[in-house]
Deferrochelatase
Amino acid sequence: MTVDDREETPSRTAPEQSDRGSTVELSRRRLLGTVGAAGVGGIALGAVGGVAGHAAAQSEPAADLDSVGRTSVPFNGTHQPGITTPMQARGHLVAFDLAPGAGRKEAAALLRRWSSTARRLMAGRTAADDSAVAFDAGPSSLTVTFGFGRSFFGRTGLEKQRPFALDPLPAFSSDQLDAKRGEGDLWVQIGADDALVAFDALRTLQREAGDAARVRWQMNGFNRTPGATAKPMTTRNLMGQVDGTNNPKESDPDFQKRIFVPASPADGSADPAWMAGGSYAVVRRIRMLLDDWEKLSLRDQEQVIGRKKSDGAPLTGGSETTEPALDKTGPDGKPLIAADAHARISRPDQNGGAAMLRRPFSFHDGYDEDGVPDAGLLFICWQADPMRGFVPVQRKLDRGDALSAFIRHESSGLFAVPGGARSGEYVGQRLLES
Ligand SMILES: C=CC1=C(C)c2cc3[nH]c(cc4nc(cc5[nH]c(cc1n2)c(C)c5CCC(=O)O)C(CCC(=O)O)=C4C)c(C)c3C=C
Ligand SMILES: [Fe+2]
């Protein structure tokens, strides 16, 4: 069975491709296929349905949108959205466990439902039975990304299809992990540039889990709002550092190989065929010990990272994008970028080439009774193989990162994120119907 893909074409493409017109641009396909029947601009189009009993009336995106609201990200593609999509202002992470008695059949129906809804919401289309929370705001770059945890495969009788890459991460000496806030059968990452749109997607997907799955843990995050700066700039984290500078770039020749499982895994590949075009997400809730951090002088803070706080430039000079001169020493003969500086020891060339795409959200969950902020980084990194991405780098950081004294890893999850859905397909179909 396939999901209804009549509405797959987005009203706007990703920011870098979008124009700045003020009206909602409708694809030819949608004009012919749907709007033609009912007109444009928030008019309900009648039952679309066709997906696991979901037969809500759908409307076009609100017509009166500014650029943030108008921007949409395609749901279909080789890879799922929310991996190379520019970082969004708002994020929700949620993990579900399948309910007792729910197995492969229920999981397949759930992924089919969720994919249909994600496709619709990402195009900014509301349904008659929607809560109205996201009305008026358009797609706002909403992305929904689905992943499978290690425990999913036992629950669904799909053990033989479980990738070796989902073997548990090693324990690190600095881990202080809360198991209740980690792992899970299913993982959903939601990102959007509007907080109401993001919440609406979270709540809708949770409601649609119905009796099939229950929330195991849920976390909320944020980043700088696109458009807040005159030109696009690397975001900052809650320690105030420019964070994300030396991420792999899509234009790098080895980007695809490092971040994504090949579209046709070679014979003998460790990855099962259903992971073609997929990626592995490592998710860590990392608390920042901000009271201790903020007691450091600016100079000491910069030594911890090896980059200037003002503009993210390496301590050896230049601008944010200048390559650090790791051998350069100061008048005292010591390296200007310390031996234990975070940005030195996390580099691929210090870790046998290990690289990952970091795409985090900051979090702030209030203050504890002593006034200590419960704040930090929802660290999410993407790689084709966690053993050649996160694991070697975290091993190195665990042994001697100057930043370690100011952070605490509080929860952890590892998820297999399958390739993007093709037209008419739901995410994970190649696994669940294999
Ligand atoms: C295991 C992987 C990593 C964890 C965990 C991690 C936590 C973490 N990092 C910062 C702040 C910065 N990190 C920076 C660079 C950087 N960090 C990692 C990996 C992990 N970080 C890598 C691979 C890199 C890039 C190294 C390189 O190739 O140069 C930087 C510098 C700017 C940048 O390149 O992004 C900052 C700042 C925090 C605050 C944190 C935990 C809370
Ligand atoms: Fe880092």
Notes: The pocket of fe (ii) ion (ligand 2) is lined by residues 342, 346 (CB under 6 Å). Residues 287-413 form one domain. The longest helix spans residues 104-122.
